[in-house]
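Example record for the data management plan.
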Amino acid sequence: MRSNHKWIGCWLCCLILLTGCLRAGFGLTADTVDARPPGDAAASDRLASDRDQTDHASDDRPAADDRLGADVAAADRSGVDGAAVDGADSDRAASAPYRSQGAPTGTLAADTAAAELRVMTDIVSFCAYEGVAGIPYAHMDGRFSTVDGLQHRATVVGLSAGTTYNFYLRCRSSTGVANGDDYPIAFSVAPAPAVTAIYRSMGPSNTVPLASGTGNALRLTGDAAQFDLPLPDRVGVGDLLQYDSNGDGYIGALAMIVGRVNSQTYSVRDPDGQPLPDMVGSTNLWALHRAYTSLVEMVAGIGNIGIAPALRDFDLGDYDLVADNQVRHVACYADAVDEEAVRLFGLLTDPSHYLRIFAPAAPAEVGVSQRHTGNWVDTAFTIFKHSSVLDSVFLVEIGHAVIEGLQIDVRGDPGVTSIGVSVYPNLNDAAVDVRGCLIVGHSDGTSVEHFGIEIWHTPSTAQLRAYNNVLIGFHGTASDEIALFADSGLLLAYNNTIASSAIGVRQRGGQALLKNNLLVDCDTAASGAFEAGTDYNGTDAPALGYTVDNGGNAHDRLGQSFSFTDVSAANFHLAPADNGARDHGTNQVGGLFTDDVDGVQRGAVWDIGADEAAP
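Corresponding structural encoding:
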């Protein structure tokens, strides 16, 4: 008898070891499933899975839980300590599992990208799920993992903010009895917080206060800064207000102007775009400054030296717009001509968190416009490249930026390359907009290359979107004189007016698509092979000079006579009597814009070029 007991004991040990190995082989980790947004508020779409599909490759082939079922069932009947299961438990194993404690529920944090589905069963079971209701257990794709048959887990990924998810669970007992109804798990991911707009001003070399509190009291209530007397018209968004906030006789607080109501009332926030505490009473101890004195110092986070030293480093080391959930708007003021070329680098951006450099113009931004009017204005903000340290006035290396409404002087220095805006990010998802700018070429000598705007040496998926720009005068002694140049990536050029240039648009590499561009007085209007969809471009030349993939450019306007306001003054606004470009464009520009170079809304039928003629 003793030898028989030894034999039975060894047999039980082997069975336990075998069961453990089988469990480890077929249920180690939770499945991970890619979650897509639901099709409606009630139920999510069927989810794509990145789990191993070999267990479910054929209906004839048993799933992992089938192969494991007999062994786990045997272990379940023998109990965790080897004791026999009574008749009632055996009967329970022959019924469908009871499910409970489903999770998660409620609302998860907005930054949740993955969640673990969990459920408990009262008997050893195998569980599965779907994103739609009413799917039989055998046809469910999403599988839970389990180590004891009672606790079940699966991970879903690809969750999005502001979305509700519904999952429907069914389980099958170790004896093969499956639930005939769904057990729902529903939860939401909170909406993402609104992106915060922050503003900074830049006035070239301007370190003196724009205004101060001598005889002009300041009151701060809520988001409003109110002054007893009007401020100068050149005060606007991005300007920095330093003031005594607590009556201790010292300037110790900062506020940024984010909007203008009138010359005495402005909307303000703290440097991070957050509300300010109310100020008790009023103060005459305040001064208003430009936040920066150059774009180069803006990139470096070096504040205006006219600001109190203890308050000056409001941006130093703050280079992650994505983590800060911000869009940074830098308003450029015509305090002087900016003679420093700028390299935009170091900022972490994405499509929702980007850098915008612009000239303020609207009354809600500034008392007097700092922007050109579609033709050269001496009182508008102007920037040019004074030295040959950089090839470009703007060298854009960050992934997401907007350059808007600037007046750019591109001087062709002898022996060097001179470019207005060079888009040069080594980022696959880069998308840079250059819009509403007036870019003028001046050849002062024999430069190597003289371009207005270019996209160069970028990944194939990077984009330059150039629209509503006026480019004039890229016609000199350089080896390459080109207003708009595509070397790599994707150039989308819409509604630009290009005049008096050797080559209007050149595609040498990458891809380029042109629509609604007006090319006048160019030696070669365009050259290269352009993408399908290129159409509705106009020129005074007998041919545009390009080829279009699969043709289709039937709406191009060739050999046209265009009427402008004043060509001798480089004013290329369309004259009311023009018939060459007026009402000959298309509004199919991917929804990027609806206005023109002056900010005027375009009509039902668009004009070709940067300007939408007055009706």
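Summary line stored alongside the record: Confidence is low (pLDDT under 50) at residues 1-32, 36-87.
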